[in-house]
Each structure stands twice: as C-alpha cells, then as structure tokens.
C-alpha cells in the first residue's frame, strides 16, 4: 500500500478568492479603461485579450481555525446541496411550474455598476446564471455592505424590453410593463425585480479598471433570505445565456482558489488569460465537459473511479455516470465546500480510509459535522501517514495533495475527511479544488485541472 508521509498535520485549505478582470480593448493602448461596444449579449469579445478579477471567501479575514471555517461553510451549504439533489431528482418531471436555483456560495467578487460607478460586492456562483443586485426603490431588501444601486442616477443604464434576448425564459421572466423576473433559491431566499442593462467595471490587478457596457442584470427590489453572505447580489458563471461568461462571449474562463486557511485573494480569469499559457501542458490535464439536457447550466464531468493508496475502489463506472433522466453524474461547483459522492461510492471510500489511516475513528464526528474523523495521537504527529487520493476522470487522473481532502485541528485532537455522501448526484467541492487552476474551455467543451500556486498568480 502506497502512502505519503505528512511532516505536519496542520493542513492548509484553499481560500477561494478568484475572479476575472475583463476584456475588450479599444484601439488605444494607453487607456486603462476598456470599453468595447456590442449590441447583443452574445457578441464575442476579442479572445486575444483577457482579464482577471480577485475573489475572497465569505469568511475572509476572520480569526477562525480551518475546521471552524469548514463548519461555517457546511452550515451555509446544506440548503445548496439539498437543492442540487432536488433538481437532480425532479429533472425529468413535468410538474415543476417554476425553476428553483441552488443560490448561496462561498466567494465574493468586487465590481462596480453604472456611470458614475457604484461599488457592488457579489456572490460568485458557478451553479446559476443570473447576475443581479439590489436596486432602488427597495420595497424589501436585506442589509448589504455597499450602497443600493439607483438606476435613475446612472447615465448608461436602460431597462430591458420584453423582446430582448435577456427576457426569453418564461419560467423566470414575465412581460409586465417591461421585463420582470423572479429567481428563487433552495434556502427559501429569492430576488424579484426588473431586468436592466448597464456598464460593469472590474478591477484588474494587472492592468487597472476594465469596463464593459450593456451587461444584462436583474435589479432586485423585493429580495429576501440569509444565503447571500456579505454580498449585495450574485454573479452567475453557469453555462446559460444570462451568465457573465456567456454575455462576455469569451470561450474560456478559469479560477484558482487559494487555501481556505490563508487570508489570500483567489483569482478568476477570463478570455485568453484564463489558461495562463498552459495551453500545451494543459492537454494532459483535460477532461470533457458532459452536457445534461435537464440541467444545462451546470458543469458536469465524468468521474470513472477513485484510488485510495494503491487500491482502486470496487465500484462500476456506472456508479458515477450521468443517467438518462438527468440524475447522477458529477458537477464542478465553486460554491460547495466539501466533495459529495453518491452513497455507494462514498461507502467504499470511507471503508478504505478507515483501513489505511491506522488511526482510531473519532466519536466526535457527528458533533463536528463531518462524516469521518480520526483521533490524533497525543504525541509524534509527524509520523502520521495519509493515503494518496486519486480521482480518475475521463482522460485524466487527478492526484490531490492531502490538504485538499484532510482537515486537521490539533486543538480538538482530530483529523477529518473533507468528503461526504449524497443521495442523487456528486459534487466536486472547492476544498478539493485548492491550488488548482480550473480551466473551463467552453469552445472545446473541456475542463482542465492544472496544479498551480494560486497565491502567486
């Protein structure tokens, strides 16, 4: 059995902070402000260019242990997991009158809206599409850290008509004196308002502010719920037509999440900058994106097996396969903290970790909130070994560093597996994505996992 020796069990976890900058230059090269003009939300931008945006965890800067950070994120993410599961369960049903979205998330990105610009701090969500923020007049709004946006004070803001491409999904939008929308989330949070277009400005750490006009977004005037963290709205990065990715028309985006225990900024990168010149080496890290017609906004991948140490878990490839009815399969999600595996796969993984860890299973697992924890010895932590964990995706084997799947808290005397069971679908969570450049190539329909020191980008 192959194992890795860990000199210290004070594992670090990636603090997701990422987000792109923006693109599209005018003919001038001296201006830091990029303002391309295009008439429809689907017009492609200049893919020779790229930009990056910083992102931070919702709990960024708080004096918490790694385990405490994970526990807080688990509490926030329960409704998200439940909604993912419900969506997978009812994907092919005919009784759903209106869609409900996962909502919530773990990372915030800062940007500005309008002319003059008004700051906005928004939840980054790869599991949904709509971009939205709270707007005046706010009949029902939650507290937010930035001013509520007033469309009447922006010289570049305009309402979206019912005939716009932004207003075509009749499950979400209604034509009532303009394009109105209602988005409901799994934790009973919701946003209701009207669709608008305006200039969004992003602060690129490399080149300065980048502005892009005519971004379609929801102006929420009736918003409720506790799932929006410290943000004033949400930015969807899903595969649907309303997402920021689709509106920019760039073809590529990536993110690189720093350790959860480090107060460092992550990055989201768009356009040509997204692959950071990894276009050649990235080929060996690439797996196809899988399309689920029932959930077209999600980024599905094909997980074919898992190896612990040198043991390939005894489960057929069909265990993790996307089913014809839209259930099953695995999605990549930035807003879910743990990785969730379908129950049969998780049972096999849990049993193998118990066999190979050579530590006593802790009785504190239930109170901690994680499914499998081990008691640390009182002395000589340096001699503890952790078995390797390798995920076998179609076309690529991804071996994770131990800090991406084990969480240690010496003060509590435990080390825990950062994975859990799910009844209907699997999710590759953000802890497992730490210090990986996760590159989405939407033109080639692939995802690449490239080991990267994310705080040094």
Automatic annotation (TrEMBL):
<dbReference type="InterPro" id="IPR033121">
    <property type="entry name" value="PEPTIDASE_A1"/>
</dbReference>
<feature type="active site">
    <location>
        <position position="125"/>
    </location>
</feature>
<dbReference type="InterPro" id="IPR001461">
    <property type="entry name" value="Aspartic_peptidase_A1"/>
</dbReference>
<dbReference type="InterPro" id="IPR051708">
    <property type="entry name" value="Plant_Aspart_Prot_A1"/>
</dbReference>
<dbReference type="InterPro" id="IPR034161">
    <property type="entry name" value="Pepsin-like_plant"/>
</dbReference>
<feature type="active site">
    <location>
        <position position="333"/>
    </location>
</feature>
<keyword id="KW-0645">Protease</keyword>
<comment type="similarity">
    <text>Belongs to the peptidase A1 family.</text>
</comment>
<keyword id="KW-0325">Glycoprotein</keyword>
<feature type="domain" description="Peptidase A1">
    <location>
        <begin position="107"/>
        <end position="450"/>
    </location>
</feature>
<protein>
    <submittedName>
        <fullName>Aspartic proteinase</fullName>
    </submittedName>
</protein>
<dbReference type="GO" id="GO:0006508">
    <property type="term" value="P:proteolysis"/>
</dbReference>
<dbReference type="InterPro" id="IPR021109">
    <property type="entry name" value="Peptidase_aspartic_dom_sf"/>
</dbReference>
<dbReference type="InterPro" id="IPR032799">
    <property type="entry name" value="TAXi_C"/>
</dbReference>
<keyword id="KW-0064">Aspartyl protease</keyword>
<dbReference type="GO" id="GO:0005576">
    <property type="term" value="C:extracellular region"/>
</dbReference>
<keyword id="KW-0378">Hydrolase</keyword>
<dbReference type="Pfam" id="PF14543">
    <property type="entry name" value="TAXi_N"/>
</dbReference>
<keyword id="KW-0732">Signal</keyword>
<dbReference type="GO" id="GO:0004190">
    <property type="term" value="F:aspartic-type endopeptidase activity"/>
</dbReference>
<dbReference type="InterPro" id="IPR032861">
    <property type="entry name" value="TAXi_N"/>
</dbReference>
<dbReference type="Pfam" id="PF14541">
    <property type="entry name" value="TAXi_C"/>
</dbReference>
